[in-house]
Amino acid sequence: MKPYYIICMVLLLFACQKDFLQMPISNTTTTDSIFSTTIKAQGAIANAYKIVLSQGLPYQGNWNSLIQDNASGALTYGFSWTWGYGISTSTGLTATGNTEDMDGYAYNFTTIRQAYLVKENIDKVTDMTDADKAIVKAEMTALIAYRYEQMVIMYGGVPIVSKSLTVNDDLSIPRAPVAEVMDSISSWCDAAAAVLPSVWTSTWTGRMTKSAALAIKAKALLYAARPLFNTASPYLDLGANNNLICLGNADAGRWQTAVTAAEAVIKEAENNGGIKIINTGNPLDDYGTATSTPANAEIILAFKYDAGGSSMNTFYNMHNWQAYGNGLTTSYLENYYKADGTDQVWPSSSTAFSDYITRMQAMEPRFKASFKAWEIDTWNNPNDNTWANSNLYQWAMNVAAVPVKFYYKAGTRNWFEFPIFRLAAYYLSAAEAYNEMGQSANALTKLNVIHQRAGLPAVTETDQAKLRTIIQREWAAEFFDENYWLHDIKHWKRADIGNGLIGGVIRTLHFNSDGGGKMTGNTDYNDGQMYLGFWAPRQYLNPFPQTEINKGTLIQNPGY
Amino acid sequence: MRYRTLLYMLAFSGKVLAQSVPDSIPTASVSKVSGEELYKTPAANITNTFYGRLPGIITQQASGEPGYDNANFVIRGIGTYDNNDLAIFVDGFQVNNTYFQYLSAVEIASVKLYKDAAALAAFGMRGANGVLWITTKRGRISKPTVQVQVRNGVQQAENINKPLRSYDYARLYNQAVSNDLYAVNNHQYIYTPKYSATQLDAYKNGTGTDIDWFDEVLKKNAVFRDANITFSGGDTSTRYALIVDYMKNQGLYNVATNSTTSNAQIQRFNLRANLDFSFFKIFEAKVDLGGRIEDRRYPNFNGPSLWNNMAAYPSNIYPVKDETGNWSGTTVYSNNPVASLKGLGWASTHDRTLQANFNLKEKLDFITPGLYLNEAVSFNTWTRNSASKTATYARYYNGVKTTTDVTTDIVASNSAPTNQYDWKQANLSAGYDRTFGPHAVHALVNYFASNYIEDWNGSFNGSGYNTGNNIFHHYTNLGGTVDYTYREKYMLGFGFGYSGSDNYAPGHNHGFYPAISAGWIALTDPLYLKIRASAGKSGNENSLQGRYLFQQYYGTSTAFYTGVTSLNANSAIVPTYIANPDIFAEHSMKYNVGFDMTLFKKLDIIADAYLDKRGGIVTYDQASYAATIGTALMFKNIGKMTNKGLELTMNYHDNWKGLGYRVGGSVLYHKNTIDYQAEIAPVNSFSKTTGRAAGTPMGLIAEGFYQVEDFNADGTLKSGLPVPVFGAVQPGDIKYKDLDNSGFVDQNDVTKIGKPSYPSLYYSFNASLDYKGFDVSILFQGGAGADYNMLNATTQTQAFVSNNNAFPMAKGAWAYYPSEGIDTRATATYPRLTTQANRNNYRNSTFWIKKNNYLRIRNIEVGYTLPEAFLKRAHLSNLRLFMSATNPVTISKLLRDYNFDPETPTGYPGLKSYIGGLSVSFN
C-alpha cells in the first residue's frame, strides 16, 4: 500500500463531510414553514393577539405581578413582594426597576414586531383568499394601533416602528412627539376600520372588528383631549423636547375630535356590531353581565386568554391567596353611591360592626356586583356556596371589602375574560367631552345612559365643574379594575392626586381594633389611615428603563 | 456521505491503526496518574478517587448518594462562563461522563491530563477545556498471571448538620411569631408565645414529641464491597488482559433491602477483555470490550427531597407513627421521612453499557522505515431500564386521617426503557516514527469521525431547539502532530486540528486549530532540566446555549381564544432568538511555559505557568440592540475571558537503611476574569460583573442589624437612614449599605460580596514509607480562596420560614424581650427570627458569605506485603493485606463555625470510609 493511497482516502472522506455535517431534521418549526399554510399562520396570528392585548395585565401569573389598581390607590398595594408595593409606598416609579409596565418597555416592541411579522408574511400563505389576507393585515394594523395607544398613555411619545426590524436595521429610533404618535394611531385605526368586518362568525368572535378599531382611536383621542397632553406647558419642563410629553398647545377643539370619535364607535357598534348597553331594568344583573359574562353584548374587545388555565385570574379571583393582596380602600369606596343615589358616610371613630353591614347593604348595585363585604355572602353570586362568605375567606386584614368583579354568577368558572373595551366607556367618553365643550345637555344624555342603567336616579347637574366631578366619579364606579383609573387621574391632572388618590393618606376600614376583618365574629370598625402613599409629579408618565436610556437614543421623561 | 457509508469504506480500506495523539509529546504539559494510585481510594465512583492525585485537575466533591455520586472536574480553573466540561477519551475514543464515572480503577492502566496547546492541538474543536485521556490495562508478554483483589468495609457520612431539637425549636419559634407581630403591636416587640411554658418543659424533660429525623432514617455504617480478578499474559503473537470486577455500595438509610423496601444501592458488574494480536509481521490488532451492568435501587422517594425533609421537618411535628400505629403525616409535613423509606416501596434502574473497540495497525517499514497506518472503530452504547414496586400510605395525626392518601398494597411495574445513547466513532491514522543520526521525528495524522445519538438532552446534545430525542451530533476532526528532536536536546513541535461540527451552518462549520511548541533539555546529569513552551489554539463546540443557533426557530406558546360560548383555542407560535448564520465554536488561545527538573534522580519538580485567552464565547447579545428591535436577540461569538495560573508539583523519594520514603505535593493557583459578556451596563459601575471572575457572588454590603433606636414611634426609619425597598424592616433585620447614596437600599447597591465557589488555590501533599514489607501512606488535599454563600443552603439558614425547621445558627438571633430576660441586641449573629418569607434578610449579601478554605485527609493506607520466601512456598507471586481510611479528617472553618461540610453542605453528604482488603497474585 502506498502512502498516497491513504492521502486520497482521507481527502475522499473530507469530500463526504459536507453531508455528514448536515443538521438533523426534526419537527421543529422554522421560518420556511411558519407561513406556509393558514393553519400554521393562525398560530402566529394568535400569538399577535395574545401578546399585544396582554398590555397592563398580569397574564404571566408572576409571583410579583401588579394589577393596575394596586398602584392607583383604589386597591391596597398588593404584597410587599409585588411591584405595587414599591411604587405605592417607597420609591415610586423609577428608571431602574419600578414601573407599571411589568413585561418591560422592550416587550412592547416584541408585540408590535409580531403583528408586523404577520402583516408582512401573510401573503406567503398559499391557501387563503386575498380578501382574508387583507382582513388579517387590517387586524394586525389595529393591534399595532392598540399597543401604541396604550404606550402613549403610559409613556408619552415613543419610537414609531414601521416594520419588523432586523439586526441589520438602524435600531436607534428616537421618540416621536406625542402628536405624531396620536396621528399614527388615528390613521392606522381608520385604515383598519375600512377593511375589518363589523362582526365575526361565532368561531372567531374576539378578533378585531370595525368597532374595536374605532374604539382604539376614540380612546387615544380622549386622552389627547385631556389636560395632561392637551397643553403647551407640560407637568414638568423638558425644554426643547416638551413635544415628547405633551401636544405643544392647548386646543379645546380636541374635545370635539374626541366626541366625534366616541360617537362613531357608538354608532358602528350599535348599528352594525350587534353591541349594546345591556339594560333590562335589573341593574345588578345588567352590570354584572356586562362586566363578567364572556362575549356578552356590551364587549367590543376582550383579552380572551385566561380560559386555558393561565394564572392571570389568581390576582382577580378571591379564591386564591394571591388575590388577597387586593383590598378596597375607603378612598375609592367613596366613589360609589348608595342605591338611592346619595352618598354613603363611613365613620372615622370606632363603631359597632352591625353598622358596617347596614351601610354596605345600602350600596348601589355596581358596588355589589364588584365587591364582597365582610361577613356577607357575595352579592354577585347569590345562593352559590362557592362564593359564600366562608369560602372566600383567607385571613384577617383591614380592607373595606374585597373585589369579586368579573365573576358575576360565575359559579365554578375560575377564569375570566378581561374586558378591554366595553361600549359604556364611549358613552362616558362622549359625556366627558360634551361637558368640556360646555354642552351639558348632551353630556347628561350620554352620562345617564350609564348612570341609570346602574339603577341610580338621573343626574341633572349642569354646572360644568360640578358635572366634571360627577363624570369622573362615574368613571370610577363604572370601570373599577378595568385599567382606566390609574391613567384617568393622571391625565385629568387631578389636584388631589398626591393627597388621597395615589399619594398622601390612603384610608381603609379597620376592624376589631385594627386586628383585621374576620370571617365571622367581627365586633367593631372605623375608617382610618392605611398607609402613606408616594407621589411625585414625575409619575404622570412612566420612566423609560435606565438601561435603555444608556444605549443613547432615547430621551428620558422628566424627573427620573 | 452518511455515516454508514463511512464505516463501509473503512471496513474495505482494510489497513489501519489508531490513536489520535502520540503516546507522548515531549514539549507538552501533561500530568499522569496510574490506575493503581486511583485504586488506593476506595470509592464507588471513579471521579471520587481523583482528589489530589492528578495535578492540574480540580475535583469538587458532590453528593455521596450511591449511584449519583459524581464529583465535578475542572481543568486549570474556569476558562469559560459557558460549558466547562472537559473531553474524556478511553482508549482513543471519546466517552461521556455516564460511561467514565463507573469505570473500575482496576481497568485503568493510566489517566493522563492534557493541559496545554501542544497536547490539545490535535483535538481541535473539542480540546479547549482540556482532555482526560484514559488507557485501560493490556496484557504484556509474560506467563499467565492472576490477580485477585478484595475490599470490604463501611462508609459513613462525612458530616451531618442536625437541626435543633424540640425544646430549642419551640423556644425560638416563640420569638419568631412574636417578632412577626411587631407591626400589629404598634411597632413594639411584645412577647406572644405560641408554645406555653408547660409545653416547653415537656420538650425539655423528654415527655413531648422530640424526633431526631436523621437518627430515625439513617444508620451509621453503609456497606462498601469490591472484588475483582485480572487475568493477563501472552506471548509475541497474542496478549490478553481480562478483568472482572464487582462492586456493591449501599446507602446510609436504615431500611432493609428486600421485596418491599430498599436501601439506596448500586451494584456494578464490570467486564473487560483487552486483546492484542500480532501477525504477518506488519499487523497489530486490538480488540477491547468494556462492558458493564449497573443496578441501582432506591426507596421510592426522591433522594434530595428526603434529605431536605429530614432537615426541614421540625422535631416536634409528630411521632414517627401516631397512636393508631399508622404513619404520621399532616398536610404541611406530608412526607414523613421514615414512611418515605418504608411505606412507598422502591424504584430501580438497570443500566447496560458496552464500549467495543477494534483497532488494526500496519507497520509499513517495508515502504519506508517508521511508517505505519492505523484504523480503528468504536461502538459505545448505553441503555437504561426502570422498574419499581410502589405503594402509598395514609397519613394520620392524633388518630385522624389528614390527607386523601390511602394505604395501598405494593404494585409492581414493568421494566421499561427510559433512556439510551449510542456513540459510533472511527479513527484513521498514518504515522511516522524515525530516528536518523541526530534527528528524531514523530509524526501522526489522524482523521476522526463521531456520531452521537441520545434519547434526552444530555451533555453532548445540548439544550435549545431541535435537540433531544434521537437527534444526532456529528463531528469530524483531522488532527496531526509532528515532533522533531535534534541531538536529544532541542525539540520543536507542531500540531493542528481541523474540526467540523454539525452545530454550525453548512459551509461555515469547520475550524482550524494550530499549535507550536519547543523544548530544550538544558542539563542532563546529575541535574536534569527540560524547559518547555507552547502556544496554540483550540475550540469548544459544546455550548450550553444550544446547537443550531444559525437556524431560525419558532416555539409554541399558550393559546389565545376566540368564540362566544364554546371557546376555540388558537395555540400561539412564537419566534425564538434571531438566527445567527455566523455562529461558531468558542475558541481558546493557550500559552504555557514550564520546566521538568530532576535532581540526583530523587527530587522531581514540574512547574508550569499558563494563560488561556478565550474568545468567541457564545453569548446572548443583550447589550447591542435598542428595545425597538422587539424580538428575542441573537447569540453571538462575542464573550471573552482570561484564565491564568501556576502549577507546581514536587516529589522526593529516597531510602535510608531499608526504609523507603517518599514525600510530594502539588499546587494549582488560578485566576480568571470575564473580559466581555455583553452585560447591560448597570446603573452603578460597581454592580458590573464584567471584569470580575466568573461566578463572583454579587449582593449588598451588610452592616449589622437595625436596632430599636433606628426607628421612629410609627415604625418608620429615622430620617437620614437609607430605606430598604424589600419590604418593611424592623429592629433586628439586616441593615445594608446604600452604596450609591440614593436614600434607598435597592438592587442598584449590589456589588461584589465575595469570591466564587471554586477554590482558587487547590493543593495536595502526600507522604509514604515502606519498610520490610510494611507500607504506610497518607494523602492530604485542600482548597483555599473560595467563598460559600450560605443562602444556597436554604433549609439550614432560613429558620422557620415557610414552616421550615431551625438550625443551631438561629440561636444567635437578634431578639429583645426584656420581660422574658431575652436581650441579644449586642451579641446577635443572626437576624431576628421570622416565620415569614423575608426579602430583606434572606437576600444575597456579605452577611451570608463565608470563607470556605478546607483541608482534608483524603486517604490513609497501611499495608503489609508478605515476604517472598513465604510467597514461594504458597505458590504466590504477591500477597498484600491493607487497611485504608478515606476522608477521615476535615479541617474547615465553615465546618467548625456552622457545621457545614465545605464541599457538600446540603443533601446526601459526602462519605468517609474504612476499608480492609487483600490483593493476591499468582502465576
Automatic annotation (TrEMBL), chain A:
This is RagB/SusD family nutrient uptake outer membrane protein. It comes from the Bacteria. PROSITE patterns: PROKAR_LIPOPROTEIN. Residues 98-220 form the SusD-like N-terminal domain. The keyword Signal applies. Residues 1-21 form the signal peptide. Belongs to the SusD family. One of its GO terms (cellular component) is cell outer membrane.
UniProtKB/TrEMBL annotation, chain B:
PROSITE patterns: EF_HAND_1 (PS00018), TONB_DEPENDENT_REC_3 (PS52016). Coiled coil: none annotated. Its main location: membrane. Keywords: Cell outer membrane, Membrane, Signal, Transmembrane, Transmembrane beta strand, Transport. It is found in: Cell outer membrane. It holds the Pfam family Plug. Residues 1-18 form the signal peptide. Residues 27-131 form the TonB-dependent receptor plug domain. GO terms for cellular component: cell outer membrane. InterPro entries: EF_Hand_1_Ca_BS, Plug_dom, Plug_dom_sf, TonB-dep_OMP_SusC/RagA, TonB-dep_rcpt-like. The keyword Membrane applies. It is a multi-pass membrane protein. Belongs to the TonB-dependent receptor family. This is SusC/RagA family TonB-linked outer membrane protein. The lineage of its organism: Bacteria, Pseudomonadati, Bacteroidota, Chitinophagia, Chitinophagales.
